[in-house]
Amino acid sequence: MGFGRKNYNASTRFIRSDGGVNIKRTGLNRLDNLDIYHWLITTSLTRLFFVILCSYTIANLIFAFIYYSLGVENFGGLNTDSELDSFLSLFFFSAQTLTTVGYGHVYPLSHYVSLVSATESLLGLLGFALATGVLYGRFSRPKADLLYSKNILIAPYEGAFGLMFRIANKKQYELIESEASVTISYTDPVTKKREFDQLKLEINRINYLALSWTIVHPLNDESPLKGWTQKDFQETDIEIMILMKAINDTFSQTVYSRHSYKSEDIIEHAKFVPLRQEIKEDGRIVVSVNEIHQFTKTEPQA
Amino acid sequence: MGFGRKNYNASTRFIRSDGGVNIKRTGLNRLDNLDIYHWLITTSLTRLFFVILCSYTIANLIFAFIYYSLGVENFGGLNTDSELDSFLSLFFFSAQTLTTVGYGHVYPLSHYVSLVSATESLLGLLGFALATGVLYGRFSRPKADLLYSKNILIAPYEGAFGLMFRIANKKQYELIESEASVTISYTDPVTKKREFDQLKLEINRINYLALSWTIVHPLNDESPLKGWTQKDFQETDIEIMILMKAINDTFSQTVYSRHSYKSEDIIEHAKFVPLRQEIKEDGRIVVSVNEIHQFTKTEPQA
Amino acid sequence: MGFGRKNYNASTRFIRSDGGVNIKRTGLNRLDNLDIYHWLITTSLTRLFFVILCSYTIANLIFAFIYYSLGVENFGGLNTDSELDSFLSLFFFSAQTLTTVGYGHVYPLSHYVSLVSATESLLGLLGFALATGVLYGRFSRPKADLLYSKNILIAPYEGAFGLMFRIANKKQYELIESEASVTISYTDPVTKKREFDQLKLEINRINYLALSWTIVHPLNDESPLKGWTQKDFQETDIEIMILMKAINDTFSQTVYSRHSYKSEDIIEHAKFVPLRQEIKEDGRIVVSVNEIHQFTKTEPQA
Amino acid sequence: MGFGRKNYNASTRFIRSDGGVNIKRTGLNRLDNLDIYHWLITTSLTRLFFVILCSYTIANLIFAFIYYSLGVENFGGLNTDSELDSFLSLFFFSAQTLTTVGYGHVYPLSHYVSLVSATESLLGLLGFALATGVLYGRFSRPKADLLYSKNILIAPYEGAFGLMFRIANKKQYELIESEASVTISYTDPVTKKREFDQLKLEINRINYLALSWTIVHPLNDESPLKGWTQKDFQETDIEIMILMKAINDTFSQTVYSRHSYKSEDIIEHAKFVPLRQEIKEDGRIVVSVNEIHQFTKTEPQA
Q1: Per-residue confidence (pLDDT) for residue D283, from 0 to 100
Q2: A86, A94, A147, A252: which to substitute to probe chain B, counting the most B Cβ within 10 Å?
Q3: Is the pLDDT of residue C302 over 50?
């Protein structure tokens, strides 16, 4: 599995509920550990915009200082009413150069200033090339936006029981060739070591993820969880880790999604309520995907 | 299959004839359901152009209002013959700033205006970066442009019958390693529930999709459709769903295509007319792909 | 195979020696058949540059006409010495607007002209966004630049004979997980129909394509070509079609390459000369890949 | 394997320790061998920046010469104090045109100059489009940043011995579905020819590469290396070549990594020290990946 077998306290989980892997790697020098592109692609839009705005302001401040130190007499059309006016005018001249807007009401008179502004406009274009790449990288990044049922149920299944959870596609585009892989991690009551096991699924691949998909692990003789009760799940501090793989056929992209359930998410003697489907007049089938969380309690079998 | 088993009325189909999946998902908050990039990539070019034009106009209107509220006296070279002239001049100053054309016959006099225009030109560049990404995303999107025969035939095949349809590549680039997968959905006459079945194909993979490919499901003992007549297909409200997968070797992209036939598309006692091939003087083979729809009626076998 | 079985004249081949598939599809309306992006990506650089230059000139001519028809009195700073001067000045004003260079020595005086130039600069940005996408698409396109031996030999192999050709990687980047697939097409002497067969290879996959790879089809009892002589290859008008697949690990791209040999490329009683390898002082291994064409004649076995 | 079987001197290795394949291909004409895009993507950032700066300067020098030869009288607003001043002003006018900043304090007076500057600004945009593509291509290139243990150990394993090395992910993003493939190359002491062999691994695929992965080749009866001592490894000049494949699930990219060990990297009678794992208060697991190099000596078994 690539996870360690040390026994953690109950609050620790390998996969966070948002799908992230709960591990931080250290011990490398900062440069090895740093991946700016990865950060720019995965950070929030707000933060990205803040970073762009700051870089823009700082770049303009630096160039304004350079222009200022070269002397205001090297500029035509400059507002030189005060030192501050001069500096601010140069700041905005820098902004007009960096973005290549170049109104030209302020313009370089000396070759030194021209050299700096020629460099600045090149840097502006390169910086903008970077921004284009980052924005495209963010938007075109393969994403599986799956909705997982809040709970994982122990439900009646083929005369016995099955461990069941449901997923649905949150987006309007289609996911095809979906595959599920379910792994459990639990503390062996005897050795106190962390054990890992892959759970066998009734079906682990479907052609379309059109409505919803109930993924079932039959609790039969082959299952390591056969006969377990809520108490067993709690005491072994079980973590049920899901790895989904599917193809977004709009972009032919393979997408991945992770999720994890802990013992408190397990409901015994319950079964999922089938999703209601409404047929519109134009023949379209409408489903309400947030119904995948709904379940009803069943009678405990004697 | 990922589709429900509820029995729909005859007009409903899972796959629309244009290949789209006939399902709408609701019940999420709007933000979850929204995927702007997906929309921008898949909408028509006309709509996209309209959206770009509107955004451009609205952005310029907003900035023109900001400039106007800062006061026309903060601008050099402005046409201030009337209130409207002032506003329109500021609107076009905004356009020149947003696109970074920056003629400079109108230019900022005060630092406040300079600040707004520096922000506007940055936003202009970012917006343009987005447009670049969207246009590239649209053009580079993997597409399989397949032509499906209008009808699906029950044709003589190896002494018995086979269910057959034909596909051809509409484009001049090549598709290799093509794979077909055919699923049927029908209403069980007894249970009135929707049943799903995967049809076995004579060959489900070919190396080149050079001319055309006739995909054959033998109606032998293994087939769930053995002995069915037009009446059976109609009464069970059959839907024959096709999922094609191929590789466009110009871009090494895996492409997908979906299609679906209903009972009215099924023709009994018919067989496809082979595609005519013309050999040009330079050795090139010319085929007319729209001939894949052509079939002739055969004698009903006694 | 996706090719027809009609018998062609000897000059026809399915795969051209440059790897292109020798088929032209017609019969669709032009729009279906057209794939501008595909053309822009695969055409020569010279043609692409010509197309860009023409589009640029035509766009400027159109806008110059619009500006001219709006009246030269709507422009400031215009050279109006003659009608031609006016028009040319407007042509270059258009160019300065389209590229967003916007010197501003010529500038719009009326709102109508401002409106047109605001539209033009937007179109300029969009056109440039397209060019960015096309250039990136061209450069990032997966390419396998393989060198195929000029001839395919019938060489001694494990006490009998084998059909052999060699390939090498032309570029300095590495190709890994290379796979070969060899298909023959020949005219059956009896039925006069075109037959297709997949040839079994000794090894059809290698981890690295570091030096060269000799792909061998053993001419044993399983081979449809066992005992064939040059005369058989000629009379059946054989075409040996190669499809190579590999991964360029710099870009993790799967790349494809096609090649085809005809009977005149087949050499009997010959074997390939092993590639010379030179070890540089720094331990680097140097090979001269164009030696893959070299073979020596062997004694015909009695 | 795609490598030759000639026997090299001990200093030669197929895979360099940085993962590069140690082969140079020659014998083609320069153009075939050249792959500018590949170079631009894989060269260092410093070199790339230098190339961009040089191209920018040279392009401006060329256009300055063209403008100068057309005559300084064709420009408005030019500093013509001296020949040098004129030339430098034209150099910076060129820079303002190429980057489309276009201040406009220097501007074309004649149509010839306008024509050249219209061409220059088009070239500027195209060059910038190229730069955008190159920067995006560099950042989005699939990369596996794996840390390999410095040594490969012969450690106790299931009552016997195993050849073991460890890998860890250097980056904060996750690698899933990791696969290892280990090949050895050694000089046969009898034939003096280079032999190649694929080593069987205990497990060759794991779901997550979360902490670290110890890849084990059991030195059992099936192993070609059973019973080998340090002396054997040295005398046969062994090279142990690793090919790792994994999926970066942030970008759904398949990434590859290569590594190679020589006899001096093999340590007998040693075993790896398990990685320490620290549980933070928020439940996060912290590992120090550079501990993967650590091993302890074991008692030689009698």
Answers
A1: 74
A2: A252
A3: no
pLDDT at A37: 85
Q: How would CATH label the architecture of D146-297?
A: Sandwich (2.60)
Instruction: Burial-class residue B190 by CB neighbours within 10 Å (0-12, 13-18, 19+).
Output: exposed
pLDDT tier at C63, thresholds 50, 70, 90: very high
Tokens read off for D78: 């030019």
Higher confidence at residue B141 or residue D152?
D152
Q: What is the pLDDT of residues A226-242, one digit of tens each?
A: 989 889 999 888 999 99
Nearest by CB: B92 against C104, C114, C141: C114
B246: pLDDT confidence band, cut at 50, 70 and 90? very high
Which residue among B96, B252, B288 sits closest to C26, beta carbon to beta carbon? B288
- Per the CB < 8 Å rule, is B206 touching C22? no
Q: Does A273 touch chain D (CB under 8 A)?
A: no
In terms of Cα–Cα distance, which of A229, A212, A211 is closest to A149? A212
Q: How many CA atoms lie within 13 A of A3 on its CB side?
A: 26
For residue D261, what pLDDT is reported? 93
Of B100, B249, B291, the CB nearest to C256: B249
Chain B stretch 36-75, residues whose beta carbon is closer than 8 A to a beta carbon of chain C: 52-53, 56, 60
- pLDDT for D12 equals 72
Q: With a CB-CB cutoff of 8 Å, which residues 120-149 of chain C face chain A?
A: 132
Is the separation of the CB atoms in D77 and D51 below 8 Å?
Answer: no
Q: Which residues of B touch D104 (CB under 8 A)?
A: 103-104
Class of domain A30-140: mainly alpha
CA A260 to CA A243: how far, in whole Å?
9
d(CA B61, CA B39): 25
So what's the pLDDT on residue B31?
A: 59
Q: What is the pLDDT of residue A283?
A: 74
φ, ψ (nearest 5 deg) of residue D127: -60, -40
What pLDDT was estimated at residue A56?
Answer: 97
Per-residue HEC secondary structure of A142-203 comes to CCCCEEECCCEEEEEECCEEEEEEEEEECCCCCEEEEEEEEEEEEECCCCCCEEEEEECCCC
What is the C-alpha separation between C295 and C149, in angstroms, rounded?
Answer: 10
| CB-CB neighbours of B215 under 10 Å | 25
Contact C104 A104 (CB under 8 A): yes
Give whole-number Cα distances, D152 to A27, D162, D212, D267, in Å. 21, 10, 15, 6
Topology alike, domains A30-140 and A146-297: no
Residues 6+ apart with CB under 8 A from B174: B208, B209, B210, B248, B249, B250, C21
Sign for the pseudo-dihedral over CA of C169, C171, C177, C178? negative
Cβ-nearest to C290 among D3, D28, D102: D28
What span, in angstroms and rounded, lies between the C-alpha atoms of A106 and A93? 7
* Side chain identity, residue B277: Q
Q: Which residue has the higher pLDDT, C26 or C71?
A: C71
Residue with tokens 């003789």: A221
User: Which of C 71-100 lie inside 8 A of A, CB atoms?
Assistant: 100
Tens digits of per-residue pLDDT, D223-272? 999 989 889 999 888 999 999 999 988 888 889 999 999 999 999 999 99
Report the residue of chain A nearest B32, measured CA to CA.
A170
Residue D11 pLDDT more than 50?
Answer: yes
Which CATH fold topology does D35-140 show?
Helix Hairpins (1.10.287)
pLDDT digits (tens, 9 = 90+) for C39-52: 898 899 999 999 99
Domain boundaries, chain C: 30-140, 146-297
pTM, full prediction: 0.88
A129-133 average pLDDT score: 92
D102 touches chain B (CB under 8 A): yes
